[in-house]
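Re: the multi-chain job from yesterday

Posting the exact lines I submitted so nobody has to dig through the queue logs.
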Amino acid sequence: MSLTISPKWLQSYCQIDATTEQLASMLSDSGFETEVIDDLYIDPKLVIGEVLQVEKHPNADKLNLCKVDIGGEVLSIVCGCPTVPSARLVIVAPVGSTLPGMILKPVKLRGVDSEGMICSLQEIGLVEEGGKGIYHVKEDLSAGQRLIDVLEHDARLLDIDVTPNRGDCLSVYGIARDLAASQKATLSSYPSGIDLGLVVKSSELLGRMADGVSGYDAMTGTLDRTASPPLYMINRLRQAGMGLNHVVVDILNYVMLEIGQPMHAFDQRYLDGPLSVTQGGEQSLKLLNDEDYKPKAWDLMVCDQKGPQALAGIMGGMDSRMLPDSDTIQLESAVFFPRYIAKSLRNCQLNSDASYRYERGVSIDLNQTALAYAAKLLERYAGASFTAYQSYKLDAELVSVSISVDKINRYLGTTIREDEVQDILQRLGMDVSANWKVSVPSYRYDVSMDVDIIEEVARLYGYNNIALEPMHSELNPAPLSRDTTMQCKQAMVQAGYQEVVQFSFVSEQLINIFQGEGVPVVLRNPIHAEYNYMRTHIWQSLILAAQHNYQRQITDMKLFEVGETFSSLKDEISEPTSLGAICIGQVNHGYGHHDECVDYYTMQSLARTALSAYGIHQFLLQECSDGALHPKQSANIVSEGVVLGTIGMLNPNVCQVLSLPDTGLMVLHLDRLASGQQNPIRIPSKYPAVSRDVTITVGLDVKAGDMQNDIVSADIPYLKTIVLQDIYSQSSDAVNITWRIGFQSSEKTLSDKSVEKSMLVIRGLLDNYTQS
Amino acid sequence: MDASVKACQSALADLEANDKLIAHEVDQLKSFYLGKKSQISQQYQSLAKLPPEDKKSQGKALNDVRMALNALIQEGYARAEKIAVNKLLGKGVDITAASKVRKPGSLHPLTIAYQEMVAILQTMGFVIESGPHIEDDYHNFTALNFPEDHPARTMHDTFYLKDSERLLRTHTSTVQVHILNRQEPPLRIATPGRVYRCDHDPTHSPMFNQLECLVVEPGCNFSQLKWLLLKFCEAYLGKPLDYRFRPSFFPFTEPSAELDIVWGDKWLELAGCGMVHPNVLSEAGIDTETFQGFAFGIGIDRLAMMKYGINDLRVLYENHVEFLEQF
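And the result, structure tokens for all chains:
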């Protein structure tokens, strides 16, 4: 969470002479990543004006002519707001001044000159919505004061990122305290409040408190219903991104922003009897967000005699909320243990500024200071007076941690002296005893072990003051291993394929078209509702990549991806890795030759290339029943009974559904390929090779692959190569298949006789396929 | 001159005149005038029947004719070859017409970055390890010192599986948990891989690639961590860097830091790092008195983008062919 505050406000607590940039860099260096950002522009010409006289406009019923004193000068201003007759102090934008989106020019309104404008908060940009009518200044200000001064406005703000461990720094005071420690600057004390001891002590405001409460102060009082927060407060709340609400809520928010204590105000008219905090409960509660909340067993609930009135530390109840006509209040300034709030929050997800602070830890010593301060502001700005007060507080033990300077230096690789360590810890409010026991302030929930102290020392010593220390180690090389996946990727690149990296998220449609093994894995909270599945097949991702390109007029593409797919088998998740490839359009086989479009054999050839990276050159091609593929142009690649992969053309029906042209696909299941065994090296023969062609006429159902396998597996003497030369359709029911068969011996020049002997066996094998 | 020599000569001349003087045609002539069934072969055969005194003179005459024919044929071959070569030499192409390009394939920039980073880390003695993407709460959070319900868990926008307590890993530190549980220190491991967070804008992708490095050795310290991380980044980016280390917070390290470098004209967050939290080491059964650990994590995507000057992370995962073919 980031805290956006004005440097002036910060410097009012931490006395340090620095520019905004310098402050940002000091904060960043001490662990609060800070950016300087531009705030809303407030024109210095905007001033407080006193309305001296209001008359009806001679030519328009709805307009008024006002004389407004802006300090030594009286302007004539035409104003359309119906509340202007009751206004005393207002904000005036004289002619020539700038408001968001406009520059005021002299105007005649229905024939009368207007020398300026009486502004609403929205026109100045101080509120985003509401506040449309002119703003009635109720503070004790005088005509001519510049708005920019009244607002204590800074043109630029500090946007401070507070890490989740630093709940103590979720306020201006908290940041100032840490900055003072890191910069050795003087820190002012907390803002003063009313003397709580002077408010009538009551024993009827609070009941029983559950375990998760470490402190709970309650105070009742009355209120001026017409009050509004002062301008500087409105401005600071706006800077921090908080909108305006009820004046009491605004003031409590302001106190939280300033010193870090969340507080809650109940409309006391609605409460019945003392407030207690219970855990869980049967009765549900209508929350401020208008939802009925059924308390969970672990939730802390603030209850009166009727039932729950607030989800403690997280959100108040709808019925007891502050309303415009509320005139009596009961304030809550409580401390809840972080883990209770955290547990509730994880379940209900009702994040608020209060819950954010409570789950990160609010100091157990802060709630009375905050209550007194809030009361003082309420007295001053909301006409409040307080009638009764009660306090509950659990005794708490302070945390202390043992540390040794030696360990600090060993851990950090530094030579920081004992007195430096002591100084750093004292600046952080940590007392160090003679035997190096460090007592931790109650607001530092993040410090409980010696390593936490080490981090604090390093942080204030300065991470950048810690030297770089070269590392030495034993030279112990790991055995060289071949990265077959990378070799395979290289083979794909050489074949002209481009590697893609796709998200693992896919749609239900693709899950249904391309079926992987096992049950698909579904996400509970996907980024896009449509892409809520983890891919079960690598083709699902490749199709998305192909569609993305095809829709952008890329008609030829050859893409591949190596990645995990996901499925669940008997509640076990499996994540096999596969290589997928997709080919669309022209194959680009060479220079200047006629175009060749992707077909089944393109994919088969690709599979041969990719598998050769794994040393696999022999395999069977068997019919495959994948419905996503063309039933007669697809095959499983099988070796020793294991399906290593699948190739084929996308089923024309699927092409239509996916709006893709003819598409070739390949998948190899890399986990099933033995990783990169180097085949034995062959020495080329010194003797000449001989080749013979043989042509055979067979029926259409005969598979060339079967013939080839028969010959290869027949152990024929001197057989070296067998290459399919041609398949020629001789008639409607027969084809001629021509093979070129090569022979070679590593020991001698082959005689015609021995070649013929081998050819005889081959012809015998081929004859089995001829039509009878 | 013999009639057949004359005829052969004129046949050759005819062939040449008709632009048909090729080796094959000369073969035909050779066969006709000198082959087994040629006139001269028959005349040689009938020579046997002549009286001896005629045999000699006739024989000589036939030999002369045969030699003359042979010479003509040989000349015909030479001529045919010359004509063929001249024809080839005459064939021209438009050397300026553009040929087709055989488009080379390409590795994805993330793969190139991965390869380069792994190469650097291997020279620094790191062993590359990997692990599952779908994890349980224990490996992603609890074992890494994220207490249950702790707000630090909300720092990671976690994807959860439907009807299951499982999740998509939000960092590859999960792999460290697996390795620490099955290997004895000392160790240096690097765990690159895909990680997932539900966040999508120009600088955040719901899936990205992270590389985490872990050193567990007796006596390793924060100064060495600073040195090692900086050397790695400088090696990958190929130049000395203007840097700062900034205190930060990660549940699994204490002290924790972030490395910022000056890139262009501003500070850019490059890596998170820190001394491994003793709770993490103890959870894996490692004696924290003997062993210390440090770890750092960087976004492979982030570093690759810096190297290639890419501003929008999303372009890496759109896989537009015209983007890919540049690598």
